[in-house]
Amino acid sequence: MTMLHDITTEGTSFQRRALFVFAKFVELPLLRCSYQLLRGRWKWLGSKPLFKRIMGVVLARPLALYGDSARPVPYKEIVEHINRLDGAIAVGACRCRISHHSCPHPLDTDIVIRTGTEAWLKAFPREYRVIDKQEALNIVGRCHELGMFHMLFFHFPSHGKAEYVICNCCECGCVPYIINRELGQDYFPLLRGHSVAVTIDDKCDGSGECVAACPFGQREIINGKGATLDCFGCGLCAAACPANAIRMNHTEHDCHEHPHQ
Predict the structure, then answer these.
(1) Domain residues for 85?
(2) The domain spanning residue 219 has which CATH number?
């Protein structure tokens, strides 16, 4: 296990080659097939409980634990993260949206970072371009204004901290999000966020806008006040609250710890 951790952490030659192969040959077919099975033309098959269980055990869970998974990050934290980044940053078309062409949200929102910049520029030199931090901040800012949420993706999430892309996600287009929602956290676990939403009861007016904003269905109105269930940490509820009655409290979860693992 120690040797596997050593060769899959950020910047190792194995990790760089594996990420390039994933970008060039694996990612788009995987996204395309997953979307068609869960939301598209093959949904008649993908919606069957037995098929979902098989798909979860054989493909989705191993992929999330040992290949690729994501951590939701609130807007303010993703801004801070971008400002701390070292090295080149690049942007290209969202891989999810070009895999299914079924989402109206902005396309050029796939911000590759660290080893991801090298891998995606090498794999798609005409489709990705180098940008500065300010342009990256402008992209996440526009997406935030549209009510989209941000996820930081990790390669080999169980064995290292090889973050490689900042995705600007939505409920209708983000395929990893769709897989998580359709198969459940047990079969396709997202990484636990570093923040959880906490309601300030004295400010909460029970409007329910936080419930509508939460893409993970983890907000409810209980006794006239907004309440958080199993928070994924995306921060959309706090951004949507008209009374500023929700704060995102930092937690101590490690960025590659899987909930319900």
Answers:
(1) 2-183
(2) 3.30.70.20
Q: How many domains does the chain have?
A: 2
What's the length of the chain? 261
Write the Ramachandran bin of 216: left for phi over 0, alpha for psi from -120 to 50, otherwise beta. Answer: alpha
Phi-psi region of 120 (alpha: psi -120 to 50; beta: other; left: phi over 0): alpha
Of 152, 183, 214, which residue sits at a domain end?
183
Whole-angstrom Cα distance, residue 75 to residue 239?
A: 9
Q: Which amino acid is at 235?
A: G
- Give residue 179's identity as a one-letter amino acid code: I
> Looking at the domain assignment, is residue 255 inside a domain?
no
Q: Model confidence over 219-250: pLDDT tens digits?
A: 999 999 999 999 999 999 999 999 999 999 99
- Unique residue bearing structure tokens 């897989």: 179
Listed residue (52, 20, 3, 30) closest to 155, CA to CA: 20
**In 98-244, beta strands by DSSP E:** 110-112, 129-131, 149-155, 162-169, 195-199, 219-222, 225-228
Dihedrals φ, ψ of 76, to 5°? -60, -35
Does the pLDDT value for residue 153 go beyond 60? yes
